[in-house]
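sanity check both lines:
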Amino acid sequence: MNRPMMCRSCKKLMGVADNCPWCGAARPGKTSEFFSRFTPNLLSPNKSVGEIIIKISIAFFIVELLAVLLLGGFSAFIKGIWSVPGGVIDLLGASSPELFNGRWWGPLTASWLHGGGLHILLNMMAVRQITDFIEQTTTRSFTWTAYILTGVGGFVLSALAGHFSCGASASIFGLIGLGMAIAFLLGSGADDPMFKALLSWAAMGLLFGFLFPGIDNTAHLGGLLTGGALGLIWSSWRSKKWFHWLLPKLVVGLWGLTIIGFLYSILYKLQII
């Protein structure tokens, strides 16, 4: 017999039914629960996705500063708190046009790196706001999947434009695009209040990027478009059992590739591979 649980789609109690009586979403299979046990920090409800992203991003920023300290000394470390040298970010896995010359890892790793203290502060404030909304609207696994894939989409477009880039903002814009698509398709269309709010947020963010130098609006646009596509996918497949079965495995796979990407980046820059 099934155990009582909360629906991963609408967050309402679905009891022991095979399908949620509220939204129709299928109960996740045992394999999904098995994967969840092996990814407790990523998929368990104890911490929000936004909280975990912030902690991981801060940890990577500390790694960046330690690399600056080791390579440039204390003076460079102090300067790095405001502006991390491009060489260090490149070492750890920034996105660059070299993506098309074998550096495949950039779109996966760049979202976790930041160019300075103000950069990460502003991005993490936005991360907490948008991820909480997306997690409440969809599921935990889909929020993780969307965060990583929209970053990939953003930095692929950035690399196509010839930019050297990093930061969580491609994924932030991606989640904004995802939220816009869901609000438009499952809400009241262009009149939906959430759609209007997210559209204003996206417009202000893109305008800010045009007005101030050094901001990669190409990555923002790529993330936004990828998020819109994922919103269409969620709207179409949210009630499919196989879709919810697949998502936890996709999260594990994407994280595995990201970790391998960081290792490849360091070994590549050190000319070990």
